[in-house]
Amino acid sequence: MSENTPSLSAYFGDTTDSKADNDFSSQLVEKISVLDIDEPKATSQSEPNVCRLFAKTPQQLKDPAASFFDLIGTSTSSPNAPTGMLTDLGLPSSEDAYAPRVAIGSEADRRRDAWIPSEKTRQVLIASATAASGTYFPEREMLTMPGVLLEEEYGDSVGETVALCLGETEASQRRAFTANDVTQDERGLRELVQAGAYRSAINLTGRLLKIYGQGRGRAGHPSKHSPHSLQLWFTRIALLVKTKAFQLAQAEAEPFGDLDKPDLYYQFYPEMFGGRPGSIASFSFRLLLAELPSHCGKPKESLTKLFSLLATVRHMLKNLKEGLCEDGNPAEIGASDRSDSIRLWTGRETRIMHSIINCALAQKDYELAMDLLGQLCDRDGAPKDSLLSALGRLHLQLGDVAGAEVCFKEAKELRGSGPPNFRELVDRGLISVAQNAFTDAFACFQEASALEPSNVMILNNMGVCLLYSGQLKEAIAVLESAISSNSVQGLHESLLLNLCTLYDMESSKGRMKKFALLRQISRYQADAPAAILEKLYG
What we know:
Elements: H1 107-113, H2 119-130, H3 157-166, H4 168-172, H5 186-194, H6 198-210, H7 227-242, H8 246-253, H9 270-273, H10 283-295, H11 299-321, H12 335-362, H13 366-377, H14 384-397, H15 401-415, H16 422-434, H17 438-451, H18 456-468, H19 472-485, H20 493-506, H21 510-524, H22 530-537
């Protein structure tokens, strides 16, 4: 698929990752996308809960030399391309990438950092900018005072599990990748994230935040903020979400609120930024904090925050179209710059809508999700074929096979004649699954796998189809081949959970095969989700 083509997970993301009480031992696979279709009527209620389809492709890093902050977020190379879930840790939109700034930024900096502060915050910013240096001190409640709450650094959970299951001798052979193995700066953080050593990366963010007086034990103490310190916090909280430490992420994010306090704006530090306007916090950080409650089982709170963001962005777009700056000031902006600003903020409006769709699905508000998908389809320049495909998959989740077929047909017509592409083959497979035609679904996914041989999720789909066709050993062989053909990407959480469950179903001796997987993880992975380690140990 092209880089600008939305993946389904952008619209139907990891909606169940937020369930802290997920019973992994009773599931065949953790549900993480719209491809989790309702069980057929003929399926026994005693069967394990199955996420039959899992079509989300892990994003590949295009530029290993990119700033480490570029590793947090998702790629949005066009205004209409969606953002995925923050837990993907793929490439972010370039407008949010951190780079050292001069005192007065370029037009691109101004455009990217624009935001409308609340009236109370605006008054504080005016007072701060007009007061003599060092003479103005706002009320304490108007300050952002974050601090690291994790009392001890994370250890090597994979090594601990290896020692427990396989013995200290095997554990001693593992070479853990820790924060001590890299330079204590953003380059080292980038290396850890790229290696998938997320827990070690969290440890390093704690050390780096200590430099800003925001480390362990500093919560509630005033400190200055900068683009670098806030990007460190963005990175840390995104990594906590990635590792499913949702409650800790929520607790450490609490001091930031909705990122509207005066000390999070450049104007609050005239001696540092020379009167430069705008928000120090990136837009992606705002989006992350708005989405965070949904990971903690509070999707309604996330919806409230996301709609507030959407209202602000639409107000900014209205200002731009009326000849004003984003924040409503009557500053002069050239025609080309105004067009670029409208393009940027229209893209950000779209990103918020994608997040709202994910939250709506988390609380099963399908009407809202369909309404927003319809609005996106009606936009000029929107990837209508991909959006129609997403809408079709939503119909399938509702059990409306006929409605899904209509959407898929319209999407195919928009793509034109020619052999079916990857998305179309997956759509066909979805229809077959909804009709309990697992043999036909397997054939569709097999064709899709021929187009994208490295797509581990399609191999996972094929394995699940074989299982529901009564071919357990063949299903195991397909999932094992996914790991053997790609020792790094193949060790994906959902595929491993599936494979462990199939081992249990195959034989009482499945424990030894699980230990073989643990050895594979120890050899090729810097980190592993707790759900996987629990499953392997169990």
